[in-house]
Amino acid sequence: MRLELIHLRLPLVHFFETSFGRVHENETLLVRLEEDGCVGWGECPAGAAPHYSYETVETARYVIAGFWRPEGFGNVRGHPMAKAGVEMALWDLRARKEGRPLRELYGGTRDEIESGVSLGIEERPDDLLARVAEARERGYRRVKVKIKPGWDLDVIEKIRERFPALPLMADANAAYTTADFAHLAKLDAFNLTMLEQPLDHDDLFDHAQLARAMRTPICLDESVKSPADARHALEIGACRIINIKQARVGGPARARQIHDIAREAGAPVWCGGLLESGIGRAHNVALASLPNFTLPGDVSASDRYYREDVIDPPFRLTERGTLSVPRGPGIGVEVREDVIARYTVRRERVL
Ligand code: OSB
Ligand code: MG
């Protein structure tokens, strides 16, 4: 077996700003696993800075290079994105060896997945309105906008005025506190499908309190890091919906456990994203083909992020506002190593 880590820096078509900052390019770590003439690919979409979570491309590289063995990660605590990247590569390798699509190994049931788009904070509300209009014209099934204190009620009100029937939601990336409950409850006036992660990245308890103080359903992202978190969150009413990111929760196996826990609790899930390259995107598409992914996800077409994707063919939005789930072996798309080489910051053989 041969394992390589490839640190990529991919320029974004348009900058992406959340409550924790703006990025113009995305840093991500690819995992390339080769065995018996077959290659499996995974991705740790950890980014350059520990803002979304404590992981970065550098910590993922450090943890995989230093502590991964062919038997697994042993007693490594935390570092879910590092673990997820390797696990994705192992699943892809296995599926390719068996000549089966990943979706089939996961028990996915869909041929296409509903695609939404996540729009960042802009300089001016009008800039965001133009981007919402464009997303709608392209046919995305729902629009998510990033909010933070000072960029919330007024912006949402403007979008609603112009697009009364648009399936719309907001994501705060943990920008609010318990002092903001009354303010957040004013979002109830705008018929949002959900409010994502308004409070602390580690919190469940306060979210349960907030959920009782507003009508808009709460969806958790950052706070659900494990199947146990999902169980606790649903049991105490901290959320009604879960955004599943396999990178955040430590890989596809744990993502599927969370999917099953939510299904048993009667809670829908959707597939989130972390600006992945085509490789992580293909893994997300395979995961999102599972039956309880009943809401449009943040898995958008390749051209929404990058001028040039590292896979062929890139993901394209169908006229139904969906992405097709590839039928080929593994992630079902060809990996363009020539494109990867052009964006590589560092490539290292670990095993
Ligand atoms: O909170 O869902 C998030 C991107 C980077 C970090 C956090 C988040 C996001 C997104 C974009 O919302 C999702 C995507 O389109 O990949
Ligand atoms: Mg989020």
What do you see in this structure?
- With 351 residues, the protein is an alpha/beta fold.
- It has twelve helices and 15 strands.
- The strands form four sheets. Strands 5-6-7-8-9-10-11 form a seven-stranded parallel beta sheet. Strands 3-2-1-15 form a four-stranded antiparallel beta sheet, with helices on both faces.
- Helix 6 links the parallel strand 7 and strand 8.
- Helix 1 packs across helix 2 and helix 8 packs parallel to helix 10.
- It is globular.
- The protein starts with a strand and ends with a strand.
- The mean pLDDT is 98.
- The site of magnesium ion has 7 residues, from loops.
Number of helices: 12
SSE order: EEEHHHEEHEHEHEHEHEHHEHEEEHE
Ligand catalogue: 2-succinylbenzoate, magnesium ion
Secondary-structure-derived class: alpha/beta
Count of extended strands: 15
Taking the sheet with the most strands, its summary is: 7 strands, parallel
Strand content: 15-25%
Shape estimate = globular
Feature tags:
single chain, seven-stranded parallel beta sheet, binds magnesium ion, 33% helix, alpha/beta, 351 residues, binds 2-succinylbenzoate, four-stranded antiparallel beta sheet
